[in-house]
Design a protein that fits this description.
By secondary structure, this protein is an alpha+beta fold. Helices cover 34% and strands 24% of the residues. It has two domains: 8-148, 3-Layer(aba) Sandwich (Creatine Amidinohydrolase, Chain A, domain 1); 153-373, Creatine Amidinohydrolase, CATH 3.90.230.10. Strand 11 (302-307) and strand 12 (315-318) form a beta hairpin.
């Protein structure tokens, strides 16, 4: 079994950069990333996820990139999914923590720097801090992020396939819209498409009809003529997520709607045209805001570029909420979304996935960008 995104070299560089001697993965997503073991909630049988509170799965990454895996002893198929050779079975949370501490002692790291996830269960972090009073404990989130931001070819392949399925689900919904259709019916179409296309499931099914809350569909909202509706789908393909959205309307686009969408597309394409390795994310964001102001003197738009991979929003590279003062690098994959408020329809905008290459951005999504009309 070969790693999907993990590499010893990348792990070693990350731990060296963050001055960590051993990094412990405790959340399902980082355990999956570092071991390949199916700990995600969308696994074919998500038993490791379901029983996480009773039989936690953890992995340890040493500064040289070597790994150790702690997993429920009943799970006998590790070799089918994981490249990790050092595997230890456990039958309780207490046993799991003993295995972790034994490994730290075996590696002679009991007085070194240990990186923990900020989301590690409290009983785990407290056990380790009590067990190793001479160790230095630090937040290991950045180390995981440094490993995961740059994608391998296999990771890009999975994100692209996920994107294709998301787009098919969006188009099946758009092709089905009619006066009187409900958000529940549209959600059913999306779910069925995603499953029929072979994906494990969905990361998000965001759907807004007219003024309804797109983050809370499924309440029976009915679509009428003139409702600008938002279809925002994230599919999960072999653990990897996509994020694409499109707008659609029955009949004519409300006055001014096309002009708003045209501006959002221009701002998105400004970002795309100016992102390449070596460009600073914070500076790019500020330039994009200034570009929007050349298109519309008043008002504001929301511009976000977030890393995408095992999670829909691994990190906000640039956004109104958080912008990193870092340079873009080749093989980062990000979602670029641009929104503006419009009348009673909430936010109108555009969202697509891109891969950063040496020459600029490669678009992974392919749908027509403007508002679809049925």
């Amino acid at each position: 079994m070969e790693p999907i995104g993990y590499s010893k070299k990348k792990a070693s560089e990350s731990l060296e950069k963050n001055n960590i001697d051993v990094l412990i993965a405790s959340t399902p997503v980082n355990v999956f990333y570092t071991t390949g073991v199916p700990t995600l909630h969308v696994a074919h049988n998500p038993i490791l996820y379901v029983l996480y509170n009773q039989y936690p799965t953890l992995s340890l990454v040493r500064r040289d990139g070597e790994e150790s895996l702690i997993i429920w002893m009943v799970y006998s198929s590790v070799e089918k999914f994981s490249w990790v050779k050092d595997v230890n079975g456990i039958a309780s949370p207490k046993a799991a923590m003993k295995e972790v501490s034994d490994k730290i002692e075996e590696w002679n790291l009991s007085n070194k720097t240990i990186g923990l996830e900020s989301l590690m269960p409290r009983y785990q972090s407290e056990f380790l801090q009590k067990k190793f009073p001479n160790a230095t404990f630090v937040n290991g989130d950045q180390a995981f992020l440094d490993m995961r931001l740059i994608k391998t070819e296999e990771e890009v392949k999975r994100i692209k396939k996920s994107t294709e399925i998301s787009e098919k689900a969006i188009m099946n919904m758009i092709d089905s819209i009619r006066v009187g259709i409900t958000d529940n019916e549209l959600l059913k179409i999306a779910r069925r498409t995603i499953i029929d296309e072979g994906a494990e499931g969905w990361d998000h099914l965001t759907l807004g009809i007219g003024s309804s809350d797109p983050e809370a569909p499924g309440v029976g909202t009915i679509m009428n003529r003139g409702d600008i509706s938002r279809f925002d789908i994230g599919t999960i393909w072999k653990g990897y997520v996509s994020d694409v959205s499109r707008e659609a309307v029955i009949g004519e686009i409300p006055e001014g709607g096309k002009e708003v969408m045209d501006r959002m597309i221009q701002v998105q394409e400004y970002c795309v045209d100016n992102i390449r390795p070596g460009v600073n994310a914070k500076q790019l964001y500020n330039r994009a805001i200034n570009f929007f102001k050349t298109l519309q003197k008043r008002g504001r738009c929301f511009i976000t570029g977030h890393g995408i991979g095992l999670e829909c929003e691994e990190v906000h590279l640039f956004s109104p909420m958080k912008t990193l003062n870092i340079q873009f690098e080749e093989n980062m994959v990000l979602d670029i979304e641009v929104w503006q408020t419009f009348k009673k329809f909430g936010l109108v905008g555009i969202e697509d996935c891109y891969r950063i290459k040496s020459s600029g951005c490669e678009r992974l999504s392919s749908l027509y960008k403007n508002i679809y009309i049925n």
